[in-house]
Design goal:
alpha/beta, 7-stranded mixed beta sheet, 21% helix, Rossmann fold, 18 strands, 282 residues
Length: 282
């Protein structure tokens, strides 16, 4: 693991508008079974480079700074704006204690209930953590996602090496996906139950972005119409099926999230403070 650098507060130019939303990246240990590797650090740097101007505050948290991560999430969970947590395919225990020790009322669940967003890249959302000194912790399994979302355990499935056709929506908002992509843990669209809805399908089995015509999708966004929370699943896949995760996540944020007006610009314009958290030294 790379060394830790705690950087000081810096100033960033936000262009004609400032933004009120915040984003945090979980850069703790990844699932070593092939779902991610150290390329996550490069991906996160690229995402920040491409989208950092859209956020008031940007944080990075690794496994040595989970307490700070929890405090940051608590401070932002219900602040009246859509904030984003990016996950590397692992769910840290500060957000959802493993193994399923808090099926109701976890910080991860309250994060969505506060009208915020998770972006999950890599392994099955909330399935496992590797914060145990880089070893696999006790699994949440399928019930992690089910408990956090209050949906059935079939919301995500074991779809090994499943080819997806990029939809018109995907080509518009995520051009880096190309024409096809593969997934190993797709979302099962029939399991998206009220108050959740399918907000956007970027790739599906048949290439349609109509949830009534498709059974599985990845990348895909689901939306809680009651709480206004969002879960974006982006390439839950093993290494042989990885897409260009940095560019695709950056495109998702700047083209779809910002394009839907979910990240709110505010005045006055000028230089806004961007506070950095625990950063992996290169």
């Amino acid at each position: 693991m790379r060394g830790i650098l705690i950087a000081a507060c810096i100033l960033g130019l936000a262009g004609a508008y400032g933004y009120v939303s915040d984003i945090a990246f979980y850069i703790g240990h990844w699932n070593t079974d092939g779902w991610y590797d150290e390329s996550q650090f490069d991906d996160v740097e690229l995402i920040i480079k491409e989208t950092g101007h859209l956020f008031r505050e940007i944080k990075k948290f690794d496994d040595d700074h989970l307490e700070e991560f929890g405090k940051w999430a608590e401070a932002n969970v219900d602040d009246g704006e859509l904030d984003i947590i990016w996950l590397n395919g692992c769910m840290p225990s500060v957000l959802y204690p493993w193994p399923n020790k808090q099926p109701d009322g976890s910080l991860a669940e309250r994060w969505l209930e506060g009208g915020n967003m998770f972006i999950n890249v890599g392994d099955w959302f909330a399935y496992v953590s590797y914060e145990c000194d880089g070893a696999r912790c006790q699994e949440n399994g399928q019930m992690g996602a089910a408990n956090i979302l209050d949906l059935g355990p079939g919301i995500i499935t074991f779809g090994g090496n499943t080819q997806m056709k990029v939809t018109p929506t995907g080509k518009k908002y995520m051009p880096s996906l190309g024409d096809t992509c593969r997934t190993d843990r797709p979302v099962v669209l029939s399991e998206v139950k009220d108050p959740w809805e399918v907000a956007a399908i970027f790739a599906s089995l048949g290439g349609s972005d109509d949830p009534a015509k498709e059974s599985q999708a990845d990348p895909v966004v689901i939306h809680d119409t009651k709480t206004d929370g969002y879960l974006a699943i982006i390439n839950q896949a093993v290494k042989a099926n990885w897409v260009k995760r940095g560019p695709v996540c950056a495109e998702f944020i700047k083209n779809w999230v910002a394009g839907q007006g979910l990240i709110t610009p505010v005045e006055p314009a000028g230089k806004l403070p961007v506070t950095w958290g625990a950063i992996k030294a290169r």
